Amino acid sequence: MNIKNNIEDFLTDEEFVRWVKDTDPELDIFWSKWLQLYPEKREMLMKSREIIIAMNVNSHKASREVQERSLDYILSETPSNTIVKSTQRTSKFYIFLKVAAIFTGLLATTYFVNEYLSSSIKPLPKQQVAISNIVKNNPNGRKSKIQLPDGTIVWLNSGSTLSYPSKFTNNERVVNLDGQAFFEVKRDTLRPFRVNSSGLVTTALGTSFDINSYSEQNNEIKISLVSGKISIENKSLKTNNVTLPGEQLIYSIKKQKSVIKSFDLKEVVAWKDKILYFKNASLADVILRLERWYGVDIKLKNAPQKNWNLTGEFKKQSLQRVLERLSFTENFRYSIKGKKVEFKF
Questions:
Q1: Closest CA to 230 of 248, 252, 253
Q2: Contact 69/62 with Cβ under 8 angstroms?
Q3: Residues 6 or more apart whose Cβ sits within 8 Å of residue 85
Q4: Tens digits of per-residue pLDDT, 101-121?
């Protein structure tokens, strides 16, 4: 693994440039190990990475005048006697390296000049923009889709709160969740994505997973991995679990124990596609989810002694339509008055 002494060393490394631009698992492993060996080079690596990304997105072609001046400069810097002696391979190699270095310098200079000029017309330079905390709160009856500063997509369920910084740091991406959310994490091998939820920390690099951690339930937390790989750390117990696609970690807050098992994908993620899905649901669970889904308050009159074991789905259905079907199968009457609902058994 080559030691990098400055940003130019990174910019002229073909493997490093290819790693930044394209997805390559082998290069991910290589540069992760490189950072472990040289942690003091992390900031330099991150700056080099930002330059390559910016140059790839906003490539600026030099004008013909600039090109001609650059060529004149290169020729003037090259001794004439070195050019004449074409038989000397060492001189030719020296000229090649010098020309390449000058072009690299000109390219980097062009980028920084453009960045300086574009930022000079803004009210505040980027370095002076304060990082604020953003809080997205969905009351019962509302769901939303959020794009985080790094490009990660989050579906936030009803009765849930997500907080995150207006800009992530160079080291990590951390958000806080109370409730339920589905994450499609933007791949970034240098900045782990972490979700704090009721004492558990879920860490991912580029994957998709669902976290169900409603504080009012206060019974258990469910973390379901759809794709990729995540690690789940328990702060209080100081334990760490790794789950694979199709696995769900269920943590009992009361017992302070966790188990890992397979899960029904539809049962876990149907909500983000606006499908109200029940599988072997009890009466209490049905009421809780209906209240959260439609933003209503449900009261029971003459509640049955026999519990429900309800399975069914409702795609983009109104509350009245859902209650019509439930009342028929579970034998009860209902009334709706604004946000107040009553079940009569």
A1: 248
A2: no
A3: 91
A4: 545 554 554 455 455 444 443
